[in-house]
Amino acid sequence: MPWFTPNYGLADAQGWMSFCERAWRDKAEFPLGIFDGSSGQVIGGTGINQINKTHRVGNIGYWVSTPCVGRGVATEAARRSAILGFEQLGFGRLEIVALTHNLASQRVASRMGAVREGVARNRLHFQGRPHDAVMFSLVPSDLTQTAGNYDG
Predict the structure, then answer these.
(1) Res. 7 pLDDT band, cuts 50 70 90
(2) C-alpha separations of 114 from 7, 35, 121, 129, 148 in Å
(3) pLDDT value of residue 23
(4) Among candidates 1, 80, 3, which has minimal Cα distance to 35?
């Protein structure tokens, strides 16, 4: 993740936690942590951001630590974000936007039942420049059709 640098420290983590509390309180976005069930260690994050309240649309993001890649962790976490978004927050559409070269993120979106809609030109700004990105979407019925259809 671009924000994770060797200088990331306790003050950065505390700032992030303060941001998360404000975001939930203000209903501006809904960040969630992903924790190892045995150790309690943080192994990733997910949540809903880039919210358009008028159209009841949000974006699901996710990341997991390297040792957790390929184990279904991101898929399960993103799925739970979608359930939160549809069942508790009332969204009608959730989007996942992945860089065209980020095949792992695209696999997560596909495994959780998101529909690939196409490539959006210059959709993401990453590492100082615009990049094309693959757009996926979920609507509530997508989750009921794919329940349990992934490794996780």
Answers:
(1) confident
(2) 35, 24, 19, 27, 14
(3) 95
(4) 80
